[in-house]
Predict the 3D structure of the following.
Amino acid sequence: MKPFTVRLNFHGDLDFFLGPRTRGRSIERNVSEKTSVKDVVESCGVPHTEVDLILVNTEPVDFGKVLGSEADLEIYPIDSTCLTCF
């Protein structure tokens, strides 16, 4: 499989779980095999139990979604006040 890049943007209080150098910034992960959204989110240090909404390329998905090509993820916390996400 050809390697691909996944870009993650964590919103709201989810920054708390990120390292100081990645807070408030987009995180890129280079992936060489298919992987679930849950695995790539947790690889950044964010527990899946803190996540309420995940958008992959602007489409809502669940943790079981398998990524096999480049993707942009927007990850929102529980109790997010995002009104423009849908």
